[in-house]
Amino acid sequence: LLGATALQAIRRTVPQLGEYGIVLGQGIVGNLAAQLSLLSGVRTIAWEAMAKRIEIAKACGIKNIVNIREENSVEITKEFASPYGADFSIVAFGGEATEAFQSAMSCMKVSADGHAMGRIVLVGGAEVSLKGGASSGNMDIRSSSRTGPGYHDPNYEHGQDYPNAFVQFTTQRNLKEVIRLIEEGRLKVDPMTTHTIELAETGKAVDLLMNHPDQAMGVVLRMSH
Known about the structure:
- By secondary structure, the chain is α/β, with parallel strands linked by helices.
- It is 34% helix and 20% strand.
- It has eight helices and ten strands.
- The chain has helices at 2-13, 28-39, 51-59, 73-80, 98-105, 154-157, 171-183, 202-211; strands at 20-24, 43-48, 65-67, 88-91, 95-96, 117-122, 126-127, 138-143, 193-198, 218-222.
- Strand 1, helix 2 and strand 2 (43-48) form a beta-alpha-beta unit.
- Helix 1 (2-13) packs across helix 2 (28-39).
- It is globular.
């Protein structure tokens, strides 16, 4: 489901071959979104604060990544996307994100009249405070919810599909595409598994993910035989 969530976020950016994209946050959704952005032909740069997640991102083939605690993310990103500016950004983390949002916005492409342009997609439950009008230029601010059309539709979930000609990328199609990319080895997921824990110790897994995000990312629960 996280893979389909990341794919839905990428679809919301409407990526074009040769564009420049920024992915803020390299948790599982952000990591997969960055990989899918690269697979779409986008020149992609990622931002992350945790060293472990940066290490994992690099192992997944995300070469351009900024450690926001140690480097100037705006300066590096502007140079990366020069002379055009970024076409889109994805905010892939939760909590207060206004400062990060504004930093990303300052890296976006700018029209001749000085207005920021492009698409910013919020997928991680981030909280952002922004002003309209000239303060936000002519940006497209978009939310990306869940795994795609059909999620939480009882009829769809029980087998009544949407017409493909009108609803091209449904939840099921997104899920199938993610699985296919993993099977083909084009979408890397193994480096994201940081721990394997016995099913009986589920509490330990929850503690790791909730209280030690700098150490744990993907936790696999194993049933003892």
